[in-house]
Amino acid sequence: MENTIIKLDNVVKRYGKKEALKGINLEIPKGKIVGLLGPNGSGKSTMIKLLNGLLQPDEGTIEIAGMKPSIETKKIVSYLPERTYLSEWMKMKDLLKFFSDFYEDFDLEKAEEMIEALNINVDEKIKDMSKGTKEKVQLILVMSRNADVYILDEPIGGVDPAARSFIMRTILQNFSEESTLIIATHLISEIENICDEIIFLSYGEIKLQGNVDEIREEKGKSIDALFREEFRC
């Protein structure tokens, strides 16, 4: 595929005797918003951890911009994990300095704009923030990088429905069209209308992949309806 930014070639990942990913072959192009969809336990988080170098495949190869997941790929990949990883003692202003020092592509001005828009108190410690505010802080830090690839693991899974559209709007407003955005979620109806392509995972296998509009036209139904009918476990 021309302009491929991410490539998986026959990737297998096992936990003991259980195969979490079963021979995954996948190419993701530059400049696309991709929904990585599937029920809990389908292999989404395993794939994301492999892409970020947090796990190693038992078989097959992974390339990001022609490189194996490593320190070098971390320079071009901005990753939002499913769980909070921030140090409880830190304040927002401490995190801004840390990220500015650590990532060359961190855009402090963009971060400050999001902080103001999301009404974040820069002097409040992480441990004193609500769960929703912590989610917003992590999102600000991830989306303030001018990265080639953004990988978001369940970015709206832990927030109430009213906050979901707000978070999705923040993501889209701070996402470069030249970058690739991968959103892993089981809340398909929330992201269907922003995705260019989707990847359905079920029991560690790709069951469906392709352009969202083409799939909807071919199947005659929404991606959410298709998932509920054919892929819900």
UniProtKB/TrEMBL annotation:
Domain spans labelled ABC transporter: 6-228
Keyword Cell wall biogenesis/degradation: no
GO molecular function terms attached to this record: ATP binding; ATP hydrolysis activity
SUPFAM superfamilies per UniProt: P-loop containing nucleoside triphosphate hydrolases
Gene3D superfamilies: P-loop containing nucleotide triphosphate hydrolases (3.40.50.300)
Matching Pfam families: ABC_tran
Keyword terms of this UniProt record: ATP-binding, Nucleotide-binding, Transport
Superkingdom, taxonomy of origin: Bacteria
The protein's name: ABC transporter, ATP-binding protein
Organism, as annotated: Peptacetobacter hiranonis (strain DSM 13275 / JCM 10541 / KCTC 15199 / TO-931)
